[in-house]
Amino acid sequence: MIYLDEQATTPLAPEALEAMLPWLSGPGTQGFANPHSPHRPGRAAAAAVEIARDQIAALFPPGGTVVFTSGATEALNLALHGLAPRHLAVSAIEHAAVLDTAAHLARSGTRIQTLPVSAAGIVTDTPFAPGTDLVAVMQVNNEIGTIQPIARIAERAHAAGALLLCDAVQGAGKLAPPAGADLIAVSAHKLHGPKGIGALWIRDGVTLAPQIHGGGQQGGLRSGTLSPALCAGFGAAAALSIRLRTSDGQHVDSLWKSARTILHRWALNGDADHRWHGNLNVRRDGLDVARLMSDCRTIAFSAGSACASGSGRPSHVLSALGLTPAQAKSSVRIGFGRYTEAGEFAEALQALDAAAAAQGL
Fold first, then answer.
1. Active-site residue set
2. 15-243 sits in which CATH class?
3. For the chain, does the N or the C end have fewer beta carbons within 10 angstroms?
């Protein structure tokens, strides 16, 4: 199986696994201790958690606090519900973790403004509605890979008296931190860390109401016993992604150029320049994607985001770009990264191209 679905999840880095193993040990060791216990094994576990917190903090701008969560979905919910904005502006191509939470807030009286995007998938400079107190725009789109001008959007939000929440799940460890954001959500398993853990970065001076109550862990903002193993794996993956950012980017750019050559008959969805090159969303009008996936069973790729695939509905992201339902349903997403081998990558793309040609396209 050739894995080309890295927007859904990434392979666990060997260094992350190695960092986790001491904290997964059983009887006869002390690696299983509760990091919130005051005894010596507990303090050792707590130290591992704090080392990881510092490693993850390097993904963000200075001047903020890292709060561990179960993933980016919880982090985004903590930010949105914790602020309880009166008027929220969200881009039309946000992840469901933002859009569905915004819809839930709307039922409690929050006014929602949807910010349109260009045909290339870039958020436009539509004025924020009067009274907007929170703007939510993602750094890199999970379906089409477009990179948003976060610094400019943050400047506009602050001028309007609003905070900026940024879903940086697809950009963390690959790009510089989103400049000007007040809250940033990330997920470990999108940067070669373990599943089940993420984080919310909160700029100093921003106050949230806790959404999970219990033991008062993490300053009372997010109660619950932390897993030293997950924290350690996340921290190691974050540190590795920072150290390898340049070489990872060069490798991805090389694969991108190869892909654009092999799939030259396919139309690109999203901006060709302002995007993360590890996300290739392309279409062949009239393509039967279900048949393509059946014909290419040894290649793991996506017909859309992992959260939406199988719903039968056209992608809301591709629809926001102005694609017709037929065009959206004839699109595929190919994701690749650090551990993608160039030869296998080319082989897979040639197979996809040949299978599309066999449909008479």
1. 307
2. alpha beta
3. N
